[in-house]
Amino acid sequence: MSEQQFPELLRELLSKYYLHSKSIERELYKSELKFRSLLEQLTDAIYFTSVDGKFIEFNRATVDLLGYSSDELRELNVEATYVNPEDRDKFKAIVTANGEVIDYELKLKSKSGDIIDCLVTSTVRYDSKGVILGYQGIIRDITLRKKAESLQRAKDLAEQANKFKAEFLANMSHEIRTPINAIIGMVHLLHQTPLSSKQQEYLQAIDSSADNLLQLINDILDFSKIEAGKLQLENKSFSIRKVIEQLVNTMRFKADEKAIELKLNIDENVPESVAGDPLRLNQIMLNLISNAIKFTHAGNITVTVRLIDTINDKARMYFNVRDTGIGIAPDKLNHIFESFTQANMDTTRIYGGTGLGLSIVKKLIDMLNGAIMVKSKPGNGSEFIFEIDFTITRDAIELDQASSNDSGIPEIGACRMLLADDYPINQLVTTELLKHTWREMIIDVANNGKEVLELLSKNDYELILMDVQMPEMNGLDATREIRKLQGPKAQIPIVAFTAYATTGEVDKCLEAGMDDYISKPVDPAMLCRKIVEQLVKRNYQFPDPSAPKLAIEGVSPDLSYLDQMTGEDSELKFKMINIMLEETPTELELLDSYCKAGNWDGVRAVAHKMKSSLQYMGLKETLELAKSIELAAREKVDVDQLPERINNVILTCKAALTSLSAELEKMQENEG
Fold first, then answer.
1. Is 189 exposed, middle or buried (0-12, 13-18, 19+ CB in 10 A)?
2. Exposed e or buried b for every residue in 69-101, given b needs 16+ CB within 10 A?
3. What is the pLDDT of residue 454?
4. Rounded to whole angstroms, how far apart are CA atoms 113 and 143?
5. Cα(103)–Cα(81) distance, rounded to whole angstroms?
6. Residue 318 CA: distances (Å) to CA of 27, 61, 255, 389, 591
7. What are the pLDDT digits (tens) for 423-439?
8. Residue 618 in contact with residue 557, Cβ under 8 Å?
9. Whole-angstrom distance between the N-terminal and C-terminal Cα of the chain?
10. Are strands 300-311 and 371-376 parallel, antiparallel or unpaired?
């Protein structure tokens, strides 16, 4: 190449290099524009900072997050954005030590002072010689997520608190209802006995106090169920007229005690049968009438029920409870249905109550898609008016009962039932309540679930009345074990008998395999009805009302055989009657206990021993019955019939012993 050609070549090369450089610059510029455009589109904050904490580069999201302008950020030290400045040193130390940090949680603050919960991912920037130039990273705003997490935690805590509250209420219910059941049960039994006027007065005070305490518990538990959204509504056929009439008749004695007239007006157009929840209607009216009686000192209370209108099969019903009581102040009318609200600060102190009654009424009516209002003036009484829709039905609502006693409850004869309850007083109360209705009923008692299983393995029962809360094995576990058995015993009706009355209790009982549920303190009539319902479902053979019944009341012993054996020796006759009066009750107890234990040899021995006493007392039919018991026990045949036979012997002998005791007193008087 000549010297003249070299400059030309150099110029050409330089020109090409220049053009190539410009092309590279343009590409780099385009890449930078694309990169910056991408940064600006990101919703997360992207930043580059120097070692001393100055913002060098950042995207639009950083400006939006921290609330500073671009110029303000370039003058700002990173430390100023930390809620806790010492967090900057900790964060910097971690990044420097590890070269990076991922999803580090920090609290930053904006220019306006708002706290921002952030997740920061950051790395160290180095130069070509490995010297730290600064830091680069991404900031993600998680404030909303943190709030959501906080709300979720609060929700979880609230649910946990509600769970604890429900458990507490359940335990409280059980602990209080158990003794109340005994008190109310004993009061009920005492009412059946002869009482002096003073005793009746004392008993009425106990009865009233127990009812008030029970109402307080029921209010609290019902309110808890409603608040938890767990209160279930029924939908069955019933008579509005009968529900209201029965309730008013029940409440009338309380009005009579205060010399208040309780009047009932029911429109003749009220449908005979409707579908709905009779229990909740009764509860609403009970609260309103109870309040009216409580706050009325003179005058009258009028309950009105009438049909407003019918559209297709829907009946709009109008209910009104009006009293001439103390009334409600105008400023309280808008708050009267709120929880724990009383019309006056002194109301609870003077009249008692939880302040939940009207709140429960309002919530129940809302659940029934109804509406309630109140009109009142202080000193002029109050008027509570509500409307509810019911579906008109044509269902028969009369109970089919083949044979009934005076209370309308069918006779069940020598039905054998197993009662499981760990509280001795409740065992006594329940037994006596049932015996008062069904004298021939045979009741065995178990103290816990294990005893239930043991007795069930030895004996046949028509029904089990099962307490839920018992030691060693509770009623739910015992029921599950029974349902695992093979054969008819696995299907035995089981009615839950419990002091618990809270949300989900019915479901627990039914899930365990129980057939029905009744809470303490028990209503004797309701308990009997539930027992009859279960017996009907299992095709129990109720006694034929036309069949001759065993004469028990006023059994008079025929002492002609005893007179023949003793002749004119009155002293010997006196001694023999004394022996029978002393020994027979013990023999009857042994006969009953041996039968319950399945000790047929013991039954045979006692039945054999009793034959002479029965012969001396002249109880010929009972003597034949004792012989059949002895034979069946010895041969171990027809043992399933022995409980009924033995129960008849016991009832007859007890009545005969009463007459025998009277005979002995006559003999003593004649000797005197």
1. middle
2. eeeebeebebeebbeeeebbeebbeebeeeeeb
3. 93
4. 14
5. 18
6. 85, 64, 23, 9, 60
7. 887 788 888 888 878 88
8. yes
9. 172
10. unpaired
Write the DSSP symbol of residue 117.
E
Task: Write the pLDDT tens digit of every residue in 381-427.
Answer: 899 999 999 999 875 444 333 334 444 578 888 889 999 988 887 78
Q: What's the one-letter identity of residue 514? A: M
Cβ contact 479:511 at 8 Å: no
560-671 CATH fold: Four Helix Bundle (Hemerythrin (Met), subunit A) (1.20.120)
The beta-carbon contacts of 252-258 under 8 Å, at least 24 apart in sequence, are 254/290, 254/293, 255/293, 255/301, 258/293, 258/296, 258/297
pLDDT digits (tens, 9 = 90+) for 581-625: 888 888 888 888 888 888 888 888 888 888 878 888 888 888 888
The two beta strands, 516-519 and 494-498, are parallel
Amino acid at 224: S
Rounded average pLDDT over 305-321: 91
Higher pLDDT, 168 or 105: 105
Beta pairing class for 132-141 and 115-126: antiparallel
Nearest-angstrom CA–CA distance, 318 and 595: 58
Domain-wise residue ranges, the chain: 14-146, 240-391, 560-671
- CB 333, CB 374: distance < 8 Å: yes
CATH of 240-391, one of 2.60.40.650, 3.30.565.10, 3.80.30.20, 3.30.160.40: 3.30.565.10
In this structure, the number of other CB atoms found within 10 A of the CB of residue 504 comes to 14
CA angle 143, 145, 150 (to 5 degrees): 95
Query: DSSP readout, 397-451?
Result: -S---SSB-TTSPBP--S-EEEEE-S-HHHHHHHHHHHHHH-TT-EEEEESSHHH
Question: How far apart, in whole angstroms, are the C-alpha atoms of residue 565 and residue 616?
Answer: 9
CA distance 308 to 350: 38
Sheet strands side by side (includes 416-420): 442-446, 416-420, 463-467, 494-498, 516-519
423-454 in b/e form (b: 16+ CB < 10 A) is: beebbbbbbbbbeebbebbbbbbbbbbbbbbe
**14-146 and 560-671: same fold?**
no
Q: In this predicted model, which residue has the larger pLDDT, 331 or 384?
A: 384
Question: Within 10 A of 321 (CB to CB), how many other CB atoms are there?
Answer: 22
* 517 to 465, 497, 512, 531: CA distances (angstroms): 9, 6, 12, 10
Residue 18, Cβ density class (10 Å: 0-12 exposed, 13-18 middle, ≥19 buried): exposed
CATH number of the domain located at residue range(s) 14-146 in this protein: 3.30.450.20
Angle between helices 357-367 and 197-227 (to 10 degrees): 50
d(Cα 418, Cα 229) in Å, to the nearest integer? 35
Q: Which two tokens stand for residue 594?
A: 């041996």
Measure the CA–CA gap between 386 and 626, rounded to whole angstroms.
64
DSSP3 helix / strand / coil % (the chain, rounded to 5): 55, 20, 30
* Tokens of residue 170, six digits: 């359940």
Distance CA 336, CA 352 (A): 16
| Triad 245, 249, 255: Cα angle to 5° | 130
